[in-house]
Amino acid sequence: MDIEENKNETRKNNRAEMSAFNALPNESIVLIRKKTNAFVGEYGRRPRVLVTGVDQKVHGRTTRWFASLFSEMGFDVDISLLQQTPRLVAKTAVENDVDFICVASPDTVSPSLISHLADALDAHNKEDILIIAGSENPPEDDHPLVRAGATGIVNIHRLVGDMDNWLAQVKAGMDVSQDPQHYVKGVIDQDRRTIAKAITLIESALPAHQKTAQSIINQLIPLSGNAIRIGVSGVPGVGKSSFIESFGIMLIKKGYHLAVLAVDPSSSRSGGSILGDKTRMQGLSMEPHVFIRPSPTGGTLGGVARKTRETMVVCEAAGFDVIIVETVGVGQSEIAVSSMVDFFLVMLIAGAGDEIQGLKRGIIEFADAIAINKADGDNIQKAKEAKMDYQSALSVLCPPSRVWSPPVLTCSAHTMDGVDTIWEIILDHREKLAASGELNEKRRKQSIDWMWDLVEEGLIDRFYKHSKVIKLLPKMIEEVETGKTIASAALHKLLSQFKLDLD
Predict the structure, then answer these.
(1) Is residue 1, in this structure, part of any structural domain at all?
(2) Which CATH number characterizes residue 305's domain?
(3) How many CB atoms within 10 Å of residue 87?
(4) In sequence order, what DSSP letters do the residues of 165-218 get, joined into one string?
(5) 187 and 99 co-located in one domain
(6) 271 in Cβ contact with 72 (< 8 Å)
(7) Cβ(154)–Cβ(24) below 8 Å
(8) What DSSP character marks residue 307?
C-alpha cells in the first residue's frame, strides 16, 4: 500500500470513528446535563471548557465538533484558535478562567502536545485546570497521555462515568476565596488570573458569592469611570468581531489598554454556550495590553450578559482605558448595551435586506453612529447606497442628544478603510457630550438603570425563593398545563402569596 492509499485509509477510519462519536446516546447526554446542572446549583455557574487544537496544523472540524458536544452537555465552551502555541492557549485558559482544556485532534493526540501545555499552565500556577484529550480516533491505551499530564480521554463508551470523575476533580481543586480584599488587590495590581477569578465570582449566582462580589464592586467603583465605554452591535455576519480586531489593534498602536467583553448566547435547551468570538480576534488576543473575556448571556435579554456592568467596573479599575462590549447580535432588541456605554455603534451590511431596519424603531434610534461594514471590493457601491438610505431614515428620527446627530459612514475591517474615522467620531462625540454636561448626565441615568435592573433581578430571585410560592407553583403549573386555569389567573394567585420578607 503506497503513501496516498495509507492516507485515504486513515481518513476513512477517522470518519468511522467520528460516526461512532455522533452516535453518542441521547440518554448519556441527558445524564451528563444533570451533572452539569448540579454543578451550577453548587457553584453558581456552568463548568467551562476550552477546546483547542494547540499548534496542530489541522482542519477546525474536529475542534468545532468537540465544542458542540460540550455545549450540548451543558458546558460553557471557549474555542481556541488553531495553530496557537501552548503558551497562548494557557493564557486564554487563565483569562477565561476555564476548568478544562480539551486538546482536540483528528488523529491520536500527541503526548508532547499535552506535556507542553501542562508546562505552560504550570508557568501560570494553574494546576487546577484539567487537560483532557479528544480525538476522532481515541487510543485504547491512554497511559502515555496521562504520564504527559492529561487527566483522561474523551471516549463515548465511558463518557458518563469519566465526566462524573472529572467534575469531582474540578470541585476538589477549586479555590474560591471569600476575601474581597484578595480580589481588590489583584485587580488593582492588574493580575490577569485574579481579574478573571473576580469576573467569575461576580457572574456566579450563589448568594455567598454575590455577597463577596458586592463588596468587591463597592471598593472598585471609586477607581472606575475613566474609561471610554463603547458598545458594538449588529446582526450575525455583519463582522463585529473582525471590526473589533482591526479597531482594537489600531487602539493598541495609539497606546491604549483595551478590554473586550464579548457576549454569546446560551442555549435555552442545554444551558450551555459556545463562546467563539475570541477566535475571530487572533491578532488582538495576542497583544499584551488586551484583555478579552467572553461571557454567556445565561438567559439575559438585550444582547448582554447578566453582569456586564460589574465586569466593566473590574476592567476599568484594572487600568483598561477603553472598554468594548460586543453584543450577541440578534437584531432590533439589542438595546440593553446602550444603557451601559458612552458610545453605541450599530454595524450593518449592504445588500442583505437590512435597509428596511432603518425605517423601524428599536436599535437604530439608540445608535450614536451607524457603520456600514464590508465596504470593500465589489460591495463599495452597495455600501454607499445603503449609507444614503440610512441617512434618509435617520433624518426623520429625533436624535437622543441635544448636541449630537448620529452619522452614517462606511468601513472595512479587512482593508481598514474608515476604521480611523470611527475612532475620531467617538472622540468627537465624547468631547461634545462632556462639554455640554450630557456625558455626566448620561452616566447618572445609567446608574439609575443599573439600580432598577438589580431591583428587578432581586424581586425575581425572592419570588422564586418565597416559601408560599415554592409550595403553590407546581400546582399552578399543572393547572395551566391541563387547562384548568388560565395563565393570568395563576399569576394572580402566585403574586397574592408573594410577600417580601424585609429581613
Answers:
(1) no
(2) 3.40.50.300
(3) 15
(4) HHHHHHHHH------HHHHHHHHHTT-HHHHHHHHHHHH---HHHHHHHHHHHH
(5) no
(6) no
(7) no
(8) T
pLDDT at 162 over 80: yes
Report the CATH number that the domain containing residue 462 is assigned in CATH.
1.10.287.130
For the segment 423-465, what is each residue's pLDDT rounded down to a tens digit? 999 999 999 999 999 999 999 999 999 999 888 888 888 888 8
Name the average pLDDT for the chain. 85
pLDDT at 384 over 60: yes
Tell whether 273 and 371 lie within a shared domain. Answer: yes
Within this chain, do residues 320 and 349 fall inside the same structural domain, yes or no?
A: yes
Residue 350 lies in a domain: yes
The string of pLDDT tens digits covering residues 27-81 is 888 899 999 999 999 999 999 999 988 766 655 778 888 888 999 999 999 988 6
Q: Are the C-beta atoms of 345 and 230 separated by less than 8 Å?
A: yes
**Do 63 and 112 have their domain in common?**
yes
Least Cα distance to 177 among 217, 146, 208, 142 occurs for 208
Specify the DSSP element, H or E, that contains 296: strand 290-296
- Above 60 in pLDDT, residue 311? yes
Cα(251)–Cα(290) distance, rounded to whole angstroms? 10
Domain that holds residue 196: 179-222
Least confident among 197-201, 334-338, 411-415, 459-463: 334-338
CB 413 within 8 A of CB 245: yes
| Edge-to-edge order in the sheet of strand 343-349 | 290-296, 258-264, 322-326, 228-233, 343-349, 369-373, 408-410
Query: Same domain for 269 and 365?
Result: yes
The Cα angle at residue 64 between residues 247 and 293, in degrees rounded to 5: 40
Residue 502 lies in a domain: no
Q: Which residue has the cell 475542534?
A: 63
- Count of structural domains within the chain: 4
> 371 and 419: one domain?
yes
pLDDT of residue 358 exceeding 60: no
List the grid coordinates of 279.
477566535
pLDDT of residue 502: 46
| Pair 263, 304 in one domain | yes
Pair 310, 450 in one domain: no
Grid coordinates given for 34:
444533570
Q: Which amino acid is at 371?
A: A
Q: How many CB atoms lie within 10 A of CB 430?
A: 16
Query: How far is Cα 140 from Cα 115, in angstroms, rounded to an integer?
Result: 19
Look at the block and give the residue holding cell 451543558.
74
CATH at 193:
1.20.5.170
